[in-house]
Amino acid sequence: MTVLLTGATSFIGSSVLSALKARGHEVRVLVRTDDKAAAIAAEGVSAVVGDITDLDLLSRLVHESDGVIHTASPGDASSAQVDADLVDVVTSRLQGTSKPYVHTGGVWVFGDGDDLTEEGAVHPPALTSWRVEVERTVRESGVRTTIVAPGIVYGHGKGIPALLVGPDNIRLVGDGSQHWTTVHVDDLADLYVKAFEAGARDEYYLGVSGHNPTVRDLGEAAAAATGAPVVEESADESRARLGEAFADALLLDQAAIGAHAKETLGWIPSRPSLADEFRSGAYTS
């Protein structure tokens, strides 16, 4: 199958690209620059230079594909409109076909909870409140859609957890008592591919491994590798340092086991936990 993948050079998207290739899929990616296109082409992947905001180009590429996986995001104030426009184009182009669409959500939309599931009520922080309406559009489209809602994504020394490790100390977000529900980026990529291949209609998966450490647990694991002191701060200090919206998302207390994806798709997360990654020094080099 020819899969149209957005965000192929991003943290999540690059791992999804590798997982798709490993499964023998032909992949076509949309990248912003000639340099990125050349790097992708060197890996034997078809690349088109353009932007997901070019809706005419996007429409053509969706039509020419056998399905779509969307991992791209501006990560700024334009994210809501970009995602809404993309979903409108993708779902309209896939109407009346059996082509699958896998959309990226995020576990933060469920708010605080010690046993989050796909059926839970949503209580999003301000940072991701826009996702609720976009996901509703995806689910009501009538297309073969799956939403993957990742937890805190880590791996290879990258992702949000890297912000805990500073040059002189390990700085927690708040006092570190909140739990983060986590997933290794390569395990998450396997979930995307399994979801795409299943091609279900109106499916939803929490992309979480089942490891739910406290931020303090993570800080102490990092400190064991670096010898740096662990510094906690008040919630207001975290908001001042990171920005209110981002800090409030990171201060959510969340735990989940991801049973639905494991039971339905046979997804088995197998990479090291985030605490193990910190202890190994993966986030200190």
Automatic annotation (TrEMBL):
Entry superkingdom: Bacteria
Residues of the NAD-dependent epimerase/dehydratase domain: 3-200
Xref: InterPro entries: Epimerase_deHydtase (IPR001509), NAD(P)-bd_dom_sf (IPR036291), NAD(P)-dependent_oxidoreduct (IPR051783)
Protein name: NAD-dependent epimerase/dehydratase family protein
Source organism per UniProt: Frondihabitans cladoniiphilus
